[in-house]
Every structure is written in structure tokens, then in C-alpha cells.
Amino acid sequence: MEFRQLGLSGLKVPALTFGTGTFGGGNELFKAWGSTDVDEARGLVDICLDAGVNMFDTADIYSDGLSEQILGKAIEGKRDRLLIATKASFPTGDGPNDLGNSRFHLIRACEASLKRLNTDYIDLYQLHGFDALTPIEETLSTLDELVRSGKVRYVGCSNFSGWHLMKSLDVSRRYGWPPFVAHQAYYSLVGRDYEWELMPVAVDQRIGTLVWSPLGWGRLTGKIRRGQPLPETSRLHKTADLGPQVPEEHLYKVVDALDEIANETGKTVPQIALNWLLQRPTICSVIIGARNEQQLRQNLGAADWNLSAEQITRLDAASKVQMPYPYWHQQSAAPTRNPAVIPNG
After folding, report:
1. What are phi and psi of 23, to 5 degrees?
2. pLDDT at 236
3. Helix (H, G, I), strand (E, B), or coil: what is residue 328?
4. What are residue 120's phi and psi, to 5 degrees?
5. Are 30 and 21 in contact (CB under 8 A)?
6. Which helix (H) or strand (E) holds 306?
7. Quick check: is 186 catalytic?
8. Cβ distance 244 to 216 under 8 Å?
9. Per-domain residue ranges of the chain
10. Rounded distance between C-alpha atoms, residue 173 and residue 283, angstroms
């Protein structure tokens, strides 16, 4: 397994990270993702470690904390061999302070995660979303306290916009607090919005990106085809309206290109979609999920090989969409004066 430097930190992370959103199935949303129990989780963890995947991503809201709890039990006796990434920000209760990035909530959330994970420290602690109500100084000073206390090793964020990320980096550096080294973002062949603003920021500021939902919210599993009904087992039946929307014809155009390259390479559609991401700028690790051993082993097959430049070009062309303003203007009017703008295909 290839290991990559996580942003401007000295930490090396595997090109693939295992996402544990399938652990638990504690509510209707997460049941659609999976309901892996402790025994099954132990087996998946062992397969990952044997393949060199030693980073596991979770969050306090995944199955109402059950994902962290199951992960904690699944890694018993193995803590020193792996990296744990978790997240906080979203509601964990009905109280007015049970959400957000306030000092009150983050300290309580971190301590609760440590208890569920049965560990003394979290390797990468991430804000799950931006909190516009809490002063950014309060949030970042709290993360500094968590790092200084030894409860957290590195800090990152998720689902920020470009200005959220830049403002946070500026404030952290101004006060000498640990800056974000990672940004966990949605990115896929059917969702390339990341390239418009967040990728140029990550290039300029050397932020390592961890990709969530790399198969387009379950659309690039190889089960969706032009002219065919949605498979009965697809989680899209329950979750399609909760995630990113993809125009049907655009999806089929991308799937057609993936099918062509699958026939050429002997790889599966998911493996090709994941491998494309691994070759994009700023991507440190792609978070893969799996309900079972078969899915996990298939996703692990996305690493340690590369699509050809010509195949990447074809996938770029099939997945290209019109960029919103001001990005289309910057690219068309003065591309040589905006080297940080990453072309969309």
C-alpha cells in the first residue's frame, strides 16, 4: 500500500482509508449503508491491516455513536498499529449545545469519542462542518487545547468552503495554533465540484484531502446501467434524496466510459473510479467502505496500479461539466494568470 504525506504534517497515511459508516446500522439512514457488528468489524479490520490500510475513519454521529463503539472493540489489542480519524460538529442530542464547534460542545464530543473508541488519543480530529455562529477563534483555540492535552494528534475539517478553510488557516497561523492539515471532502467522477475552489486552495496551502463517498453516493458501484432499473439492493432507494444529485444522462455518460475502460483493463467499475481519484492532485487518501469482505477486497484492488494517461483523459471528458461563475470566467479569460485554477477535465 502506498503511503502519502498528509498535507503539511509529517504524518504518512495510506492511499486508501477504511470508512466505518457501515458499522452499527443504528438508525434508518445508516441501516441503508450497512449494519456491521463487532465480530464482522474485527474481520474487516484485519483484512485492511493485512493489505496495509491502517487508517480508519468514523464520526460521532455515525449510527448515533455506535460506529465509534464498534470500531473501538474491533481494534482491541491493535491500537498501536493503526490511525483513527473521527469527526464532531453535528447534533448528538436535542439540547441547544449538543451541536456545533463551540468549546463546550467540542470538548464534550471529543471526550465522548475517546470513551466510545476506548483509546487515549485520536490521530486526526476533524470538524464535520463549519459553524458560522461560533467565533472561529473559539473553535481553533479549543482544538489547540485538545492537541496540547494529548487527546488529539492532528486536526482537520470536512465539508468546508474555500473561504472557511482559508480563514481558519489564517487564524491558526496568526495565533500559533495547529493548522488544519486535512480536509475531508466529497469528490467523485460524478461530483467534481471539489475542483472548482477547494482543490486550488489545497494546492496553494498544501492541504491533504481525504475523499468521502468516492463512488458518487453509491452510483458508481457497477450496478447502474443505462436503460436498466435501479437494483433492488441499492441504498439509493432510501438515500438518493439525502445526498448529491446527479443528472441521469450525465451519470450514464460516465458509466459508459467506465464500462469501456473496465473491458480494456479487466478491472471493475468501482476500482477504476477509485483509481481515477488516487491520481488527482491534492488527494492523500480515498475513504472506502464495505458491507462485507467481498466488497472490501474489491475496493482494495483500486490501489497499486494506474490508469493510463489516455484512459484518464477519456474519464475526464466524460465527467466534465460547466463550471459556475467566476471559475469559468477565470479559466477562459486569463488561464495563464491563474495557475492555481485546476481545469475541469
Report:
1. -80, 125
2. 54
3. helix
4. -90, -15
5. yes
6. none
7. no
8. yes
9. 3-337
10. 23
**Alpha helix stretches (DSSP H) within the chain:** 28-33, 38-51, 66-74, 103-117, 136-148, 162-175, 198-205, 236-239, 248-265, 269-278, 293-300, 309-319, 327-333
Read off the pLDDT of each residue in 240-248 and give the average, rounded to a whole number.
Answer: 75
3-state helix, strand, coil in the chain (%, to 5): 45, 15, 40
Q: What b-and-e string marks burial along 89-99, b requiring 16 or more CB atoms within 10 Å of the CB?
A: beebeeeeeeb
Cβ(85)–Cβ(122) below 8 Å = yes
Q: Which of 62, 125, 154, 194 is catalytic?
A: 62
- pLDDT exceeds cutoff 60 at 154: yes
Residues 66-78: pLDDT tens digits?
999 999 999 999 9
pLDDT at 345 over 50: no
**CATH topology classification for 3-337:** TIM Barrel (3.20.20)
* Residue 309: C-alpha distances to residues 233, 259, 313 (Å): 34, 17, 6
Q: How many residues does the chain have?
A: 345
Residue 265 neighbours by CB distance under 10 Å: 15
Q: Is the Cα torsion angle 241, 245, 250, 253 positive or negative in sign?
A: negative
- On whether the CB atoms of residues 279 and 311 are closer than 8 A, the answer is no
Q: Which residues are within 8 A (CB) of 41 and not within 5 positions of it... i.e. 6 or more apart?
A: 20, 23, 70, 71, 73, 74
Instruction: Report if pTM > 0.85.
Output: yes
User: DSSP assignment, residue 250?
Assistant: H
Segment among 15-24, 131-140, 231-240, 315-324 with least mean pLDDT: 231-240
Q: Are 279 and 302 in contact (CB under 8 A)?
A: no
Angle (nearest 5°) at CA 110 between 36 and 67:
5
Grid cell of 204 as nine digits: 496553494
The helix (H) or strand (E) run that includes residue 288 is strand 283-288
